[in-house]
Every structure is written in C-alpha cells, then in structure tokens.
Design brief:
The chain is an alpha/beta fold. The protein has one domain: 3-Layer(aba) Sandwich (Rossmann fold), CATH 3.40.50.1820. It has an eight-stranded mixed β-sheet, sandwiched between helices. Strand 7, helix 9 and strand 8 form a beta-alpha-beta unit. Helix 2 packs across helix 3 and helix 4 runs antiparallel to helix 7. It starts with 11 loop residues before the first strand and ends in an 11-residue tail after the last helix.
Length: 286
C-alpha cells in the first residue's frame, strides 16, 4: 500500500455561513481551475484528501467541503437540514463564498448525488462532474437495509451508542484518510447521526430521470462491482442517460484511495479535457 500524503499546511481551512449554518472546507493547491469534492454519508473531508493532494500537484485547486452534520461543519439535529437537495444549496453558497462562477463538482456516494442535484438545478455553475459511486434506484433496497437499522440503533439505543462514540473519540488517528474519516464518523454523537440519516432517507435521493437526462455538463462516472449500496448498474445507467458522460470501472471502492494512480490519471485527463476550448476537447460532441 502506498503511503498517503498527509494533508499539512500550506493547505488551508476555511469557514463560511450558508442557510444559517457554519460550514467548513479545505483548499489544496492554487491552480486557476477549481474542483469541489464531497465525502460520503457520515464521513468527512479526510476521505478525499489523497485525491485532493494528487490533483493539486497537477495544477488544480481542490476544495473539500464538509457538508452539514459532517466533519468540522455545524451539526444541526433536525432532519430537515440533511436533505440531499438542500446540501446542493450549500455547494452553490460555497462557490459564491469563493467568488467562483463555475467549478468542477463531484464526490463519492452522498457527495456524488449532491453534485448531481447541483448540476440539475444550476447547470451554469458546473464546469464538469466527477461522480464516484452514485446511489440511484437500484441501490435503494440495499441502502434502506443498511441505514434504517443504523438509524433505529442510534435513536433507541442512544446511551450505549454514546459510550461507543466516546471510545472512538479516544482512538488515535492513523493519518490514512479513509480510516480516519470512518473513525470520525464513529465518534459522532448518536443524535447527530440520527438527524443525518433521517434527513437523507426522508428526502429525494437523486434528481429525477428527466432531470438527469437534461444535465449537459461533461461527466466522469466511476463505479465498481463490490457492494450493493453502490451497484455498478447504477453507474452504467447514469453514464448512458447523461448526454456527455463517460464511465470508468474501478476494481473496488478502495482503488482510488489505496492504489490511486490509474483512476487519478483518468480524472486528471477528464478535467483537462473539460476545461479545454470546445474545439480541442477529445470528447467534444460525445
């Protein structure tokens, strides 16, 4: 396993307000082309730090946003704050805060779906999409079987859940982003976890099929065949429905974080193409 570069200064931590909430983000790199990336459910910016570092080394400015209820951002305890379509409004507010008319936007799982909501509702703000492990119709039964029991556990077994969370808060962090992100999730207060899960399960999971088909931004869809919450069929169907999409198959959800070379190269090539003049794009008209 290649060691993960540690996210240390000069990366920046910033804060802004959106919808009455205080939100946090990290900036890696100083390129003129900006990429906003988001984490999966209950995770945080740590999960994308390796990719952020690698893209920053290639000349990109990468912003890692902690969505409400995650990471360093404020953690409201009402489910209404945690709908995926509401999260997309915070991404737009981040672009305003950073003074950006457009950016490439993407993420993993939850973050991928939030990026799709933004592209469907504000296509003028999205230069390109990088959508890793989207959660669409085929994933709903498996997602429900996974997250509904977790929601019931943190809601009805709050006291023992708090004991477990306190133990994980004392656990040392490894410096390996995905593992630290998971430890941070397990350290969260059960009331905060319940609010996030309730809001996401109660709200819309993805833009409608018609809304997806209208997304014109160049899109890179990354999928794998290793788990039921992120079925490869969803990634395939999404790449077919979007008019300017291409599909990359990863060996597993860990490839981009443990052996990132191949997928990072695909992402960098795609982003270079998305920012090229239309006449010079390799995938123009695809």
């Amino acid at each position: 396993m290649a060691p993960e570069p540690k996210a240390v200064p000069p990366y920046e931590v910033g804060h802004f307000e959106s919808g009455g909430l205080g939100l946090s983000y990290e900036i890696h790199g100083h390129g003129r082309r900006t990429v906003v990336l988001m984490h999966g459910i209950l995770l945080d910016a740590h999960v994308n730090r390796r990719l952020a570092s690698d893209l920053a080394n290639l000349g990109y400015r990468v912003v890692l946003l902690d969505l409400p209820g995650h990471g360093r951002s404020e953690r409201p305890r009402r489910a209404s704050f945690h709908r995926m379509d509401a999260y997309a409004l915070h991404v737009e507010a981040l672009l305003d805060h950073l003074g950006l008319e457009r950016a490439a936007v993407g993420g993993v799982s939850l973050g991928a779906n939030v990026a799709l909501f933004l592209a469907a509702r504000r296509p003028d703000r999205v230069q390109a999409l990088v959508v890793e492990m989207p959660v669409l119709e085929w994933a709903v039964p498996a997602a429900a079987m996974t997250f509904v029991p977790l929601l019931l556990t943190v809601h009805f077994a709050r006291r023992p859940a708090r004991v477990v969370a306190a133990a994980f808060r004392r656990a040392p962090r490894s410096g390996f982003g995905p593992l630290d992100s998971m430890l941070n999730a397990l350290s969260s207060d059960p009331v905060e976890i319940a609010a996030v899960l309730h809001g996401i399960l109660a709200g819309p999971v993805a833009p409608t099929v018609a809304e997806r088909e209208a997304i014109t931004a160049p899109t890179l869809v990354i999928g794998h065949r290793s788990d039921r919450i992120h079925p490869f069929h969803d990634a395939e169907q999404l790449s077919r429905r979007l008019p300017h999409a291409q599909l990359v198959e990863a060996s597993s959800m860990l490839e981009l974080r443990v052996r990132p070379g191949r997928i990072t190269s695909e992402i960098a090539t795609f982003l270079d193409d998305a920012w090229a003049p239309p006449s010079a794009r390799r995938h123009a008209g695809s």
